[in-house]
Design goal:
This protein is α+β, with helices and mostly antiparallel strands. It has seven helices and 19 strands. α2 crosses α3 and α5 packs across α6. The longest helix has 15 residues. The two termini are 22 Å apart.
Length: 301
């Protein structure tokens, strides 16, 4: 096993901010005595390839330099290749637009906390979500969501991503105007019956935040070995507009149409592929099941 960190830089993260800030940030780590090997990704999906190759070369300590999407690719490059029993550590230099995951640990200054954890070689065991779909599997460290939240992410990623949190908010208002309420048949753990109720969205969370600052799952804990399942029923446009600010402080969960439960496994029974938001990225998939992988990765935080 190589002792050096393998840092993957996404120069496009943060609207290009990562390309400017990555060099000085890595230089600070090296000045503190860390051995860091660095490579830059050049296109979507490239970070996953780089991580997979580095793992095969013996690297077990990684740093994602960019946003949540960079870390998502890195983890999937390794775990879809080596399997759920792979053992790595992951550090963050959060230079992207979202960086939702770190807010669970240091809401005010996640970047500084992540940098300090790397310097001190401090880690915590964190769970991962494992989604099984018709063509394979995907791992997530933040969340998986269906319905309104996936619709917002699809629009935001296509048109507003460069605007950061404001772009996500803009996507929210556009999707409110186009509001759709659908049923996604599922059952959790030992449930015998399929839940086919219409809803605004379903969110399966490993951490609390999405979109940078939206507190979708205020009771989620990425170290508890459970999926925090948040369901919001078919609220109307006016009701949703009144409730939108509560998505940012977590009190939306108190709405009569909202519900949450902690589960370990979810089965889906859906007739066709759907848009799924996974760690802020969108994929159109025929999804089959979702499960928690407890303590899957050692995160420097």
């Amino acid at each position: 096993m190589r002792e050096a960190f393998f840092a993957i830089v996404n120069p496009a993260a943060g609207g290009g901010r990562s390309a400017k800030l990555a060099g000085p940030a890595i230089a600070r780590l090296r000045a503190d005595g860390l051995h860091v090997d660095v490579v830059a990704s050049t296109a979507p999906g490239h970070a996953a390839e780089l991580a997979r190759e580095a793992y095969d070369q013996g690297y077990r300590r990684f740093i994602a330099v960019g946003g949540d999407g960079t870390a998502h690719e890195l983890l999937n490059g390794i775990f879809t290749h080596a399997g759920a029993t792979a053992r790595i550590s992951l550090g963050f230099l959060p230079l992207g637009t979202g960086n939702s995951f770190l807010r669970d640990f240091a809401a005010q200054n996640g970047a500084q906390a992540a940098l300090q954890a790397l310097r001190e070689n401090r880690t915590r065991r964190v769970d991962l979500l494992r989604l099984i779909h018709s063509a394979g599997e995907i791992y997530a460290f933040n969340l998986l969501s269906l319905g309104f939240t996936a619709d917002v992410a699809t629009l935001t990623n296509r048109h507003f991503k460069a605007l950061g949190p404001f772009g996500y908010l803009l996507g929210v208002f556009v999707r409110v105007a186009q509001l759709r309420r659908r049923a996604f048949a599922l059952r959790c753990d030992q449930d015998q019956n399929w839940d086919q109720r219409r809803c605004l969205f379903l969110s399966f969370n490993n951490s609390k935040y999405t979109g940078g600052t939206m507190l979708i799952a205020p009771q989620s804990d990425p170290t508890d070995g459970l999926i925090e399942f948040v369901r919001w029923g078919p609220i109307g446009r006016l009701g949703l507009l009144r409730m939108l600010p509560k998505l940012y402080d977590g009190t939306h969960i108190e709405h009569p149409l909202a519900a949450r439960r902690a589960v370990r496994r979810v089965e889906f029974n859906l007739p066709e592929p759907i848009d799924v938001m996974i760690d802020g990225e969108i994929a159109t998939l025929e999804i089959r099941s979702l499960e928690i992988v407890p303590g899957a990765v050692d995160v420097h935080i």
